């Protein structure tokens, strides 16, 4: 069964304290692995798409990486404005009706 | 480029009623997907429309339905509302669909069923 699992559920960091969020996926024929950021009461905001193992993408303090089984979102020297829920999602080539599966998210809180 | 818009932003309905939500995708995007988001279940896929045809459907009862118009605008309808339908309903548009291209989400419609 296709599955996406994110860990940890919640993460509290001090401003400037770097860390990583994990997204493990079991999807047949991965077509894309996506990262989104969601602020309370708003829709998810697209961050990155990764297509193949070994691929990396960066945006400001964020860097996403992909292996054959998991993806990491590395946050370097975070600031309070990076506080949000980070969602990953996987799209499979041979999935059933629900072609894209979202993880439950990691709630990130950055203390000043 | 204008983003995805959803109307209304907030709705309060009573059990047994029906509701229609509207979504306007990013200009040029032909795929519109709908999701239900709740604290307990997270983001769950409802269905996807592409060029006025339903292309994918998630595991939701037949009370949930949708359609897409020739201008790519989409509506979803929920009939015979239940308390458990209270959620944030999100619409996302994409240039080619959920199968490998990023989606852009609207702000959502917060539905409360009493």
Structural write-up:
- The complex is a heterodimer of chains A (112) and B (114).
- Chain A has 112 residues and is mostly beta strands.
- Chain A is 0% helix and 59% strand.
- The mean pLDDT of chain A is 92.
- Chain A is built from no helices and 11 strands.
- In chain A, strands 2, 4, 5, 9, 10 and 11 form a 6-stranded mixed beta sheet that branches. A 5-stranded antiparallel beta sheet of chain A has the order 1-3-8-7-6, with no helix packed on it.
- Chain B has no helices and 11 strands.
- The radius of gyration of chain B is 13 Å and the shape is globular.
- The interface between A and B is medium-sized, with 25 and 27 residues.
Order of helices and strands of chain B: EEEEEEEEEEE
Q: How much helicity do the residues of chain B have?
A: under 10%
Rg of chain B, rounded, reads 13 Å
* Distance linking N and C termini of chain A: 41 Å
Structural class designation of chain B: mainly beta
Strand count, sense and barrel status of the largest sheet of chain A are: 6 strands, mixed
Percentage of residues in strands of chain B? over 45%
Number of helices of chain A: 0
What kind of assembly state do the chains in view correspond to? heterodimer
Distance between the termini of chain B: 37 Å
The helix/strand class of chain A is: mainly beta
- Give the beta-strand count of chain B: 11
Number of helices of chain B: 0
Low-pLDDT residue intervals, each spanning 5 or more residues of chain A? none
How much is the average pLDDT of chain B? 92
Radius of gyration of chain A: 14 Å
Q: Per the principal axes of the C-alpha atoms, what is the gross shape of chain A?
A: globular
């Amino acid at each position: 069964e296709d599955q996406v699992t994110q860990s940890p559920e919640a993460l509290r960091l001090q401003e400037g304290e770097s860390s990583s969020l994990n997204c493990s996926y079991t999807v047949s024929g991965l077509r894309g692995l996506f990262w989104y950021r969601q602020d309370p009461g708003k829709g998810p905001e697209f961050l990155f798409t990764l297509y193949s193992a070994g691929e990396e993408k960066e945006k400001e303090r964020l860097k996403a990486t992909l292996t054959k089984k998991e993806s990491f979102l590395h946050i370097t020297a975070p600031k309070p404005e990076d506080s949000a829920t980070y969602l990953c999602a996987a799209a499979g080539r041979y999935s059933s009706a629900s072609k894209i599966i979202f993880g439950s998210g990691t709630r990130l809180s950055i203390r000043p | 480029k204008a983003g995805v818009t959803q109307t209304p932003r907030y709705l309060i309905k009573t059990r047994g009623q029906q509701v229609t939500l509207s979504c306007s995708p990013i200009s040029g995007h032909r795929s519109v997907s709908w999701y239900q988001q709740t604290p307990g279940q997270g983001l769950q896929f409802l269905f996807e429309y592409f060029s006025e045809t339903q292309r994918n459907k998630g595991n939701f009862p037949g009370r949930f339905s949708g359609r897409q118009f020739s201008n790519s605008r989409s509506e979803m309808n929920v009939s015979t509302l239940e308390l458990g339908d209270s959620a944030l309903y999100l619409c996302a548009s994409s240039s080619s669909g959920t199968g490998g291209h990023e989606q852009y989400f609207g702000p959502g419609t917060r539905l409360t069923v009493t």
